[in-house]
Design goal:
2 copies of one chain form a homodimer. The first copy, chain A, is of the alpha/beta class. The first copy, chain A, folds into 3 domains: 44 residues, 434 Repressor (Amino-terminal Domain) (Orthogonal Bundle); 137 residues, Response regulator (Rossmann fold); 134 residues, Rossmann fold. Chain A is 49% helix and 16% strand. In chain A, the strands form 2 sheets. A 6-stranded parallel sheet of chain A has the order 2-1-3-4-5-11, with helices on both faces. A 6-stranded mixed sheet of chain A has the order 7-6-8-9-10-12, sandwiched between helices. In chain A, strand 9, helix 12 and strand 10 form a beta-alpha-beta unit. Chain A starts with 9 loop residues before the first helix and ends with a helix. At the A-B interface, helix 4, helix 8, helix 13, strand 12 and helix 14 of A face helix 4, helix 8, helix 13, strand 12 and helix 14 of B.
Chain lengths: 371, 371
Amino acid sequence: MENNSKFATMDDVARLSGVSKGTVDRVLHDRSGVSEKTKKKVLEVIKEIGYMPNVYASILSQKRSYRIIAIMPYFQKGDYWEMVYDGIMASLEQNKNIHIDIDIIYYNQFDVGSFSKACSHTLALDPNAVLIAPIYKKEASALVSTLSELSVPVVYIDTKLDNSNYLAYYGMPLYASGYLAAHLVFDGKEIPEIVNFNVDRGGAAPNDSMINRHKGFLAYIEEHGLKCKIYDFSMMPYDFMYNIKLFESFFSEHPQVKHIITLNSRAYIISEWLEMRGIKDKKLLGFDMLEKNMEGLRNGYISVLIAERTALHVQQGMQALINFLVFKKKPVIKDNLFSMDVLNKYNVDYYVASNIKENVEQENTTSVLTE
Amino acid sequence: MENNSKFATMDDVARLSGVSKGTVDRVLHDRSGVSEKTKKKVLEVIKEIGYMPNVYASILSQKRSYRIIAIMPYFQKGDYWEMVYDGIMASLEQNKNIHIDIDIIYYNQFDVGSFSKACSHTLALDPNAVLIAPIYKKEASALVSTLSELSVPVVYIDTKLDNSNYLAYYGMPLYASGYLAAHLVFDGKEIPEIVNFNVDRGGAAPNDSMINRHKGFLAYIEEHGLKCKIYDFSMMPYDFMYNIKLFESFFSEHPQVKHIITLNSRAYIISEWLEMRGIKDKKLLGFDMLEKNMEGLRNGYISVLIAERTALHVQQGMQALINFLVFKKKPVIKDNLFSMDVLNKYNVDYYVASNIKENVEQENTTSVLTE
């Protein structure tokens, strides 16, 4: 765009072409009712004076409406998936002036049948784009394959299906996050025994993200020539008494075990038990910035959390879909790997404050845009 | 803004008021040549249909020019201050469509006289706004006091002068960053001896940021009841041979010291020496994402870095000044404390990639804005 053309308007184009603004608009939107000769003249003037139509206003006036569907587990307040929900809501807010319908289809993350139903439901709604965390691999793969045939763009969050057709992926590097977790626990030194509390998924197979994280964790131990006995147990996320009994029985039998890991977002289940019992000689590592996990960091019952800016990245994933639908722009980077942020008692609050601040900055930008 | 008024244009206002667009424009900009009666009518219509003038375009057409001065040390490629420079340049790029002159006045960070000259030079240029890292407290304070009398807004980066009049501050929490550093070194356990390599500032007093970071470091040790002998030495940033001799002599005398810290950005001076000598039994902690520090992390001669997104935050600081000058908007948060990011060999590259990605996202937003 030439510097001197910054203020060229549609009026200028109409005046210099000797046609009405309506005709200029018709040419710009490639609509019928304009002779080839007039069209040529208008396009010449546009080129000459460097007129740039206001794409944003033009999209607003199209009144074209898009339906984006996000498929995600339903959640309780404070769960990991609430941050995903927050990201989707932030995107909705950011794009409130564009005609976008964002529908969320929920499923039970511990029930594959429920996930399959969500997939059928999605197809029945004839979406223009889909955001999904493909935690049930086979079923998600079938859905994405059908969407691909229908030319519906898909954005993955959390984990991706490599052999599928997708627009973009936003997630933490999973294998690397397990490797990092092991580094933070071991730091290259021998630890004779640790305990790993998984999450029981009601009989469902562990999903790719957990498998890869676990692989990364074991790889660190092997590659550093460390010997460590790892006890593996499963917590029941919504069965308080089951978990208490699990911890009591494990630690009465193995009081010498000082290191606890959980490669998922449920560290607070353990930290709350440690706090209840006043047990201060354990080091607990977990994942994700849930409010209860942060509380565990602050009060010293969680030593370290590996976190990501979930809501921000989900918002970026939604934006990738919107940019593709509305502005025909593909994301600059297809596989967007988040940074893995190492949090402890002494930096957690600055991390939280800085997250809020960046959101505020984004809002400022948007408000300028829509003024 | 009412939903149904989204598409109201200046044409609509003119039509409904029975006046020309020129008259509407005159009313909007409060210019003369419009009768009180017409003005009243136009304002009524504007209110009724909820017309919002395009503020951004209106500012473009004002052709008002602003001069912002950033005062900073000159630097060599790869220095900390290069990241500050990058942030200023990013801001310039982001605002290329607004009439903003950004001038940088450089000084020698090891010479207070040079800093004083930069301050006088700044005043002589009659700036509309100033960005400054007040590392020479007394001199910076005098400058800011004069600017305040002239109603020139000031943004601090790196460190701030509490008893002064400033628009906003963007910086790492300094005391807390020292405290965090000590936590990462000690993790609550005894370490008998460590060595701290400062940076010699050519006889200048250490600046507030270093003093506060150092205080935080010592506070952790004291509050955790740890006993530790700390050896303090100063490196000469640009005297390679001096540093080598310093390290050789210290470690031949104290081979038992395994923990090294440097509370500034020059960790690479030490890691390069460790690498040269093939010394692998030391743990080195440093600050800031310089390319050479990252190299130290990657090759294992630096254990941990505490980093911040310097360029991004300097860019935010510049934006605070621009929003204030151009849009009359004060920053939502006055004191913006960065998150303190804990980096090691296993997460550093994802952090770097994620920084780049966020910048790309920002560019996308801007391109929508200016299309």
